[in-house]
Amino acid sequence: MNIKSMTQPELAALLKELGQPGFRAKQVYSWLHKGVRSYDEMTNLPQSLRQQLAQSHPICPPEVVRKQESARDGTIKYLWKLSDGNCVETVLMRYHYGNTVCISTEVGCRMGCAFCASTLGGLVRRLEPFEMLDQVLFTQIDSGLPVSRIVLMGIGEPLDNFDNVLRFLELVNSEAGMNISMRHISLSTCGLVPKIDELAEKKLQISLAISLHGPNDEIRDKIMPVNKAYPIEVLLAACRRYFDATSRRIHFEYAMIDGVNDREQDARELLRRLKGLPAHFNLIPLNHVEESPLKPSSKKAVARFQQILEEGGITATVRRTLGGDIDASCGQLRRKYSKGDA
Ligand code: SAH
User: Fold this and answer.
1) Is the Cβ–Cβ distance between 213 and 224 less than 8 Å?
2) Which CATH class is domain 63-338?
3) Which of 6, 92, 134, 167 suits a disulfide with 11, CB 3.0-4.6 Å?
4) For atom 14 of ligand 1, which residue has the closest CA?
5) What is the Å distance from ligand 1's center to 211 Cα?
């Protein structure tokens, strides 16, 4: 395991084995979580220990391959090269309530959603906990902007990398680490029901976001293969269980696709199905992906959809699209890079 994926007690056990005094674990842990790139920066450690750790537990920080800043809204998008040469992207969004980092959880994705660029090349591998942490750390360091919120909405399906994601949450939330509150973290899933239940059992205070994108099986089946395994009623039942276990309102993401899921009757069907479940909707006009024939809904259709949901008692916001001028959405940069266009 990479040393930065270790919890403080695990690190303490390692250092004890190396004959180090008890206080070292906290020192090393906090250096690692400050984002040092080498053990030489750990100036309060004996030289011999620095050398030993550099040998046995290399730090492996990611490198910036490409950085783009939106001229419109200051959104910054990073493409990182990981130590094995794979690339993932991270987006920093500047909201009035705090700087938010959108991180990737996998290299590629195997969920196969029809509208998503991240899944086009399939799943390459899952990210290690430290590779998720590094995205937050090095985005903060490189940009000089303090990060207060995290969304797990970049490349990959977080619940398909469950154990590593949970460990990442523990690390980034730790007091001696970045100390980011669970309440300031959102995890988005396309709907892996058994994992939603497993997450509910942990009773974390994170927000759960569900990529719904359709009011029924007919529509979801067409655009989200995961719906064949976990149909909408099964998914919504899991959402109700999640709410019962955590008392956290569920966020639904809904990419609005012209002529596919944006009719008035679709909004009304959502109202019927979601009755009694405290929910919030994020309506996202589809980001067009080159390889896909799907197109975004008209502004008018989005506004009407929002109005119907609101009138039915479900709060719905239309997500402001940030970073549209820098392909800051959904695996677009990594995709271009790997095709040699970026
Ligand atoms: N795999 C997770 C998280 C990553 S995707 C999930 O499915 O939720 C983050 C969000 O972006 C999801 O809601 C996803 O469905 C959405 N998304 C993907 N491609 C999109 C596109 N082209 N336009 C708008 N939203 C998109």
Assistant:
1) yes
2) alpha beta
3) 6
4) 211
5) 7
